[in-house]
Design brief:
111 residues, alpha+beta, OB fold (Dihydrolipoamide Acetyltransferase, E2P), 1 helix, 16% helix
Amino acid sequence: MRKTRLLAAVLCAAVVGAAAPEKTKVHGYTVTGTVAAVNVAAKTFVVRAATGKETTLVRTTATRLSGDALKVGDHVAVRWLDREGKKVATSIRIEPSAAVATPTAPASAAP
């Protein structure tokens, strides 16, 4: 009787563990680079990383955008999730462009 209860308890534990497999949690991916293309109608945009790899992402109404409107040439940092085979952007941060200093001619001294 004791062995039967122990066996039943072990089998129940095995069934409960097998019935609810733990789902892998994915918190998202990131990509940084320059916006190579924007398709407003399709709500997609392409980010070209420094390595040259291009990633096509989809915007939704839930996508957070920090900065002005997204345009070609913007340097961005994007967080995204894989949903139904699409890379859905969750947040887009437009990074400030590096200010390029323009050399100026030194002021001429009056003799």
